[in-house]
Amino acid sequence: MGKSFVWFDLGYTLVYQQREEVYRQFVREQGADVPLSEVERAYHLTDKLFMREYPGALGKEAQTFFPWYLGVVNYRLGFHFDLHRQCGRMREIQGLSQRKWLSFPYTSTVLERLKKHAVGVGLISNWDATARHVLEDNGLIGYFDHIVISSEVGSEKPGKEIFLCALRAADVSPEDCLYVGDNYYDDVVGSSRVGMDAVLINRFGRFGIEELAHEPTIASIEAVPDIVNR
User: Fold this and answer.
1) Range list of β-strands (E), 91-182
2) The pTM is what?
3) How far is the C-alpha of 67 from the C-alpha of 32, rounded, in Å?
4) Side-chain half-sphere exposure of 143, counting CA atoms within 13 A
5) Residue 211 near residue 185, CB atoms below 8 Å
6) Which of 130, 119, 214, 123 is nearest to 162 (CA)?
7) Using one digit for the tens of pLDDT, what is the confidence trace for 131-187?
8) CB under 8 Å to 61, separation ≥6 — which residues?
9) Which residues lie closer than 8 Å to 209 by C-beta, 6 or more apart?
């Protein structure tokens, strides 16, 4: 593909939460159990539903969407819990973790590979004021040449302005850039509006995005260095 600059999304592209394990612990406390693989697929499908049908909802404050989101996860798994009590307890369980967001095991290796091959690395993310803390806590912030966060620049994906802001900051053309993210409607559609090529992350192949035909679609960012250097 011969790109000289790669821009990444943040959540579920570079970092993740242990939300499925939190959910399983809550379910076990209710005297039931469910395999981790089933919980992961239920969360995945719920993510894709929200991305497709309720754009922007997942980027807002948790109290504005989390009970609604969790109700969908419960429905997919056949559970019917008191959502107010469930949300409160799951927040308590998650609060026991030292870090809310964790870097995928391969994230730093991928970023190192890109830097080693003189590829510029940037971040374009719809996120609140905690974005830089998430990067710092996971030892990632030093890999980025430019960081563009919606809460800092006053614009959000899939709007053009946040991508144009990134291009101006890095002084690069869209033709030289690749954007990588897990939300087709924010990441692929948004970056294409300014002329960038995009890679879509979807952990389970076509599962959950059957209506989409975008290529390349990959399971994780591990494939990005090879795509860039084709």
Assistant:
1) 102-103, 120-125, 146-149, 177-181
2) 0.94
3) 20
4) 25
5) no
6) 123
7) 999 999 999 999 999 999 999 999 999 999 999 999 999 999 999 999 999 999 999
8) none
9) 48, 184, 200, 202, 217
